[in-house]
Design brief:
The structure is a single chain. About 70% of the residues lie in helices and about 0% in strands. With about 290 residues, it is mostly helical. Helix 1 (about 10-30) packs antiparallel against helix 4 (about 105-135).
Amino acid sequence: MPIVLHSTPLLWTRLVAMIFSCVAFSVAVHGGQLHEGTGDWCIFCWAFSFAGTLLVLLVELFGLQARAPISWKNFPITFACYAALLCLSASIIFPLYFLKGNASYSETRNLRIVSTVFSCLATIAYVTEVSISKARPGEVAGYMATAPGLLKVCETFVACIIFVFITDPVKYDRHDALKYCMSVYCICFILSAAIIVLCVAEWTGCLPFPFARFLSAYALLAVVLYLSATIIWPIYNFDKNNGGTKDRPYNCGTAMGLCIWDKVMAVAVLTGVNFVLYLADLIYSARLVFVTV
């Protein structure tokens, strides 16, 4: 089987990203002394990014793109975008849980700092890969290489972070309005994830309706749903008349990681972030419909 090797900026960017993510999880596993839960998540972020990038490099190295059972126009950039977000989350979470409040100098702390630095470098490398791979104006490319496709990746990732904060511990069962917010997060996540799967698997042609119109209609629905959740979630968590509290507890500043109030606030902020992402998605999707009609 012939080996196809073309020295391009994209190839070197992938190699660098793979090396940085490999160093990040190798150092953390070697001497980071990580506890279960948060530490496992960070290791997963780096290891998953490394393994996926290695797979992409091997497929392209041996010229197996045509034999892959997925769309190679959509898969590499989709994975790179997820890898960038995963490494970004690890770059934030890891120091928050393993460096915050630890001022003592030790080999373990130094190794944790090294993992954090290489995680940040891996994030930059994956963002660079996405920037190189994304579609340019007038260029024929897969849907996931366009702005709406990349926004779908960001929307699903933000929703996953919301699920982590909202379920540890469960913070949506106190009122029906909060349960409604949880249903909004679930519905939009499932539909966005389904769109990504359809594009990567090249199944969009199997739909009984125009894919572009479906994207526009779904984006409008998601904007309306997330707008309501952006309003409802803070009211029932920070308004005293609805059983909430707007003041941050004093013990939150000394607790390792995030306290419950911080997680509730994070959900409120991330809900607003996803609302903005879906609004941008709606604008791009509407333009796509009007341009193609």
